[in-house]
Amino acid sequence: xRKISFSEATREAMAEEMEKYPxxxxxxxxxxxxxxxxxxxxxLPDEFPGRVIDTPISxxxxxxxxxxxxxxxTRPVVDMHFADFIGVAMDExxxxxxxxxxxxxxxxxxxxxxxxxxxxxxxxxxxxxxSVESWFIHIPGIQVVAPSNPYDAKMVLKAAIESxxxxxxxxxxxxxxxxxxxxxxxxxxxxxxxxxxxxREGKDITIVSYSIGMKNAxxxxxxxxxxxxxxxxxxxxxxSPWDKETVISSVKxxxxxxxxxxxxxxxxxxxxxxxxxxEEALEYLDAPILRYGAPFTPIPFAPTLExxxxxxxxxxxxxxxxxxxxxx
Amino acid sequence: MATEILMPKLGLTMTDGTIxxxxxxxxxxxxxxxxxxxxETDKLTTDVEAESDGVLLRIDVxxxxxxxxxxxxxWIGAYxxxxxxxxxxxxxxxxxxxxxxxxxxTIQSKxxxxxxxxxxxxxxxxxxxxxxxxxxDLMSVPGTGxxxxxxxxxxxxxxxxxxxxxxxxxxxxxASPLSEKVAAELEIxxxxxxxxxxxxxxxxxxxxxxxxxxxTSSYEPVREEIKPMSSMRKAxxxxxxxxxxxxxxxxxxxxxxxxxxxHYREQxxxxxxxxxxxxxxVKFVAKALSEFxxxxxSVEDNKIIYKKYINVGVAVALENGLLVPNIADADxxxxxxxxxxxxELAKLAREGKxxxxxxxxxxxxxxxxxxxxxxxxxPIINQPEVAIMGxxxxxxxxxxxxxxxxxxxxxxLSLTADHRVVDGSLAAQFLHRVKNLLETPALILA
Lengths: 328, 446
Prior knowledge:
The structure holds 2 protein chains of 2 kinds.
Chain A: E1 3-5, H1 6-20, E2 24-28, H2 44-47, E3 52-54, H3 59-71, E4 75-79, H4 90-97, H5 100-103, E5 113-118, H6 133-136, E6 143-145, H7 150-162, E7 167-172, E8 179-181, E9 197-200, E10 205-209, H8 213-224, E11 231-235, E12 238-240, H9 244-254, E13 257-264, H10 271-281, E14 290-294, H11 303-309, H12 313-323
Parallel strand pairs in A: 2-3, 2-4, 4-5, 5-7, 6-7, 10-11, 10-13, 13-14
Antiparallel strand pairs in A: 1-8, 6-12, 9-11
Helix pairs in contact in A: 1-7, 3-4, 8-12, 9-10
Chain B: E1 3-6, E2 16-22, E3 29-30, E4 35-40, E5 45-49, E6 54-59, E7 66-68, E8 72-77, H1 94-99, H2 102-107, E9 112-114, E10 119-121, H3 125-134, H4 152-157, H5 167-170, H6 177-186, H7 202-217, H8 231-246, E11 249-257, H9 259-270, H10 277-291, E12 297-300, E13 303-306, E14 312-314, E15 316-318, E16 321-323, E17 326-327, H11 335-351, E18 364-368, E19 387-401, E20 404-418, H12 424-439
Parallel strand pairs in B: 14-18, 18-19
Antiparallel strand pairs in B: 1-8, 2-4, 2-7, 3-6, 4-5, 6-8, 9-10, 11-20, 12-13, 14-17, 15-16, 19-20
Helix pairs in contact in B: 6-7, 10-11, 10-12
């Protein structure tokens, strides 16, 4: 099967959706002339003249304009450049984009995709490296997705564009450069927003993650095999609404749960998963829920400190082996 | 307040050690002085005793893992005490500091409360669920999980004691009133008794008592007891077996007239130099070894490794085993130095404080059983050396000197040599040279 990069996969999704739906257009900073700072819009301006639009540096307008365009019947995809900048347009995001359909009693819809590149990319420091997904899973009215590989990146973006309700699409900056197999268009399986995927089956512990956290999950699961621990890995893909059934039935099988993400651990997106499992499947747990995330501190600029800030597979391996003490 | 257990530094050159085994499990009560774990270095396995009373709260370094000296390998504290992160004084990397095991965090708040007994049982929710389904009392299920918590495995493996069935109450057995009364007094279950006439009579009871008495009296007392080997015993067993399997050996015996050596020793004593025969033999053997390089070598594959140093090992008997520390460069050391070194090494060995490096690098071994009156034996080579010399008792014997019968202090030497490199004639020449030196102490200067 052909291998393409994550950013190429998102570009393909855009091209295919723009081809299919004339009402799809893109706007954001530096996307038409530059092709996006991560190359994710490369070639689109020539392919779809007039439908890839450079905006002024005004997130308020980018999101607000997108909401207006959606109300007027288009399917806008708007780009935030860095997820860290969403804060500028916060009212447009959580009071307008998320609430308009409800406030209008369902007479209007907002089929808008808000693309937000996030994550530690090395030296991005406190204002250009954050993972802010957990802010938005607290807001009813926004679907939040965060794919972990090129194939998902493509299929999730296509599903987001086709959704009649707003989707916040987090794309990790480090994952952009990752290559993986992506089927040809005719062999694609559409993604349904809200579905998690069991990426690897195992019987001993469930590791739940998403986006770049999946790299830690996979590496830890590989190493744990040396100790005879078979981890089941669940890629959540959609953070809101998240796939409770898949996670809970896995925990009922493995009796242990480990959560890992790159975002700050306190109040992190997976805290909701931990809380729900404790609420609905507590009696199936045979170990404390393990949770890995970033420390409660701004992201440091110094490379040495940024290194300390990260979660590593070793952390998971150590913790997981800890709860198996006396068993393995 | 929990105290840390450190990887001990057993010698100057010891940089790291491997945990051989933990003799206690997490949650076990530990008494000061009890063996807590064993440390393996390449030559020696040392039992390490607990430095304080308490409960083994946590094992940070499991058996088989190697860590540097002074690393925290576990924690001892009070019963029921839990470890907080602030107790952790280990110099951890920043990374570890940030990502700190989430387990400990979580465990702090994971105390289960058993309302019926008013005592805490640390158990996972899943363990509780299974225990409830099986009708087990969690209080009686031992916890083996992280921090001694009862996990599902513990409940699944738990075998509850069966309640003794009360036969008298639920099953009616026909019996005469007399037999019933006697059976009750003797606590005999009437169900076990066969009735000869429809119901149990006194005579059936008496027959039953006679039979069972016969059976019980035919039981033999326990004549065997099985105990695990100590780690030192295991090491000795391993090394001795390996030696026998490695070296084809021949043992040579030769008697030595110790008259001159006795005088020599007394002369030294007069000037306040007190040395033992072992000290003297180490000194003289070291000289002989310098003249016989093949007895100071080792064999590896098809190669002979000649050693340019002479490190004479001295076997030290301990209460439960044996250690062979060596005197490095014994050929270059003076008698008083050798003597004080041997005393010090023997003392350290008996106290279990021998630095591991003192057990390494020996090139020849001397083992003295003279104090037990032994006249001859065939010692086993301390690998990878190629020879070992047994020293026997010194005994006044009738001998012939210059055609006359006289009484002389005679001592036997028993040399075991590895025939792969030490042929009979060479071994004989060496042993003869040792005899020669011991009989003419002045030669030490020659």
